[in-house]
Amino acid sequence: MGLFSNKISREEVKPGDHIYSWRTAYVYAHHGSLSLTHFPLYVSIILSNVSLYAGIYVGDNKVIHFTRGGGRQTETGTFLDKLVVSSSPNYPQCLVCKDHSSFNGDKVITSCLDCFLAGGNLYLFKYNVSRSSFLAKPRGGTCTLAPSDPPEDVLVRANFQLHMDGWFGDYDVTENNCEDFAIYCKTGLLVCKKNRFGTSGQVNAAAAASLALALHACGLSMLGVGVYCYGRVASDVSRNGDVIKVPAKKLVSILESDRTSPREGWLSIAGPKFRGE
């Protein structure tokens, strides 16, 4: 794994790793395809192949990840629809994973590594990177300034959500997506307020890029670069003031308790966003 690439081999992945894969996606304007040659390089990188799928590798060739069910669309009704695209890969699933994915609603599920990657490459999300390394990767969704918890805590969080019949709230492209789930498992950090962007670096980078694009259109390209870099750092989960920390030990005590259900215990600590308040 090099400085500018997070790509790894299957032999390198370990239980508790936050892994992801890019899936081919296409960005369209209202009338025909959107040419990327008209934008600065950092924006072009964001707009090309922007569909990211993230999860937690738990060993034995299995990945726990958060996904949408029922084939529902993921549009947000905002400008971010043109920057963040969720794609459903045209990839044949194995019999076990096909059975797991036949559900309605949003759910945390287990997939084999092959079905999770859907023919794509395997990448490792990096934690506790320096600010220079963070900014050296112009595309969001690949690293964070925040440190990771130990692998055993990561696995507790991932398996806890799976134990709750896969419940992790409603899937939302900007507020609660598969990258938000993986970052939560790794750090224990949750955005607890509604109508706030989640911890997803891909979404926050897209939001920063939208402002940078406006400045670029006004002929202020260099200022746009600065705004984009500042926006990415300021919106990183390590800088987010709307997060709460969910200790893995607390989840273990909920599972061991006879006084409340796992879901009730989770809602008591997860904040108003997950309680629908």
UniProtKB/TrEMBL annotation:
UniProt-listed Gene3D superfamilies: endopeptidase domain like (from Nostoc punctiforme)
Pfam family, one: LRAT
Domain LRAT: 43-194
InterPro entries, per database record: LRAT_dom
Protein name per the record: (rape) hypothetical protein
